[in-house]
Amino acid sequence: MGILSCFSSIPRQWRTPKTIIGLFVLELCISIATLALYGIAQPDLYRTKLWQEGSLHGWNSSPSEIIYAYANYRPISTPLPWSSWITKFNVVIAVLSLFLLLVKGIMFITHVFYPLLSVLVHALLVALYAVSIHAQTASDMSDPEHPQHGAPWYITRGCGAPVSEALVGYCKQAKAVLAVTVLLCALFTAYLLLSLFSLYPTRSFRASRSSKIDEADEEAARPWEMGQVPPPPTISGGLKSPTTPRTMAFQTLSGDRFKGKGKKKAEAGTLGIGLGAGGDGERPPLRHHISMGDERREGMGRMA
Known about the structure:
Elements: H1 2-8, H2 17-41, H3 47-56, H4 64-71, H5 84-109, H6 115-136, H7 153-156, H8 168-199, H9 203-221, H10 245-271, H11 287-303
């Protein structure tokens, strides 16, 4: 009961529903563009090429360092900006966010997408896209001779000269991937803030909540309708079997029979009539019954 009361005290209405609808439309446009960019880059359209271009200019490590390390059995890990993991991760979160957008839209139309649920969903999405931003802008310190402090060169240096002209398009595409990732992360942060804002109870909500609590207390204090019904006359001192008219009739008849028998015993003692051998107060058989029996036998003998 306490858990239900706690949930009922949380607001379920959005303060700015039109703003939420606008964010849904904006998220749909950005999510489609993000999924397209992530899908084009997967599995390795330009990642290794940009990595190699940076190593030619001494801006970061070289992809061949990984091969040399594996050949010499030297432990090494691929830097995050150039790893295949971040490319796959981006595709996964893009598909997940687009699926959640469809679910959110349906739940919002059916009035079951509450601000509390929105906080949980968008907090998760903010965390996922924050991880993606961190991986895309991570440093590359695998080569001590060519360290990369901060984001990759296509973000900090741009896509102009001395970059090869064949990679200019890929360079701009990689920058666009980071841009849409930041936009979605900011959009989900806006969702999160609006959800928290809607969770803060207004004065009208607090007033209605207080009135509901008072009504519940009054209803609980009100006596139960069947609590004041007097018990049946035959019930006293505890719960017994119910008494029906038929039961009362049988009890009455039984009592009259026993009382009549006792009355007959008392009359018999008063009149001086002897009791039988059994001592049950029954009269001995009358003689004329016997005589009648004898007379009948005599008459039958005569007839024979």
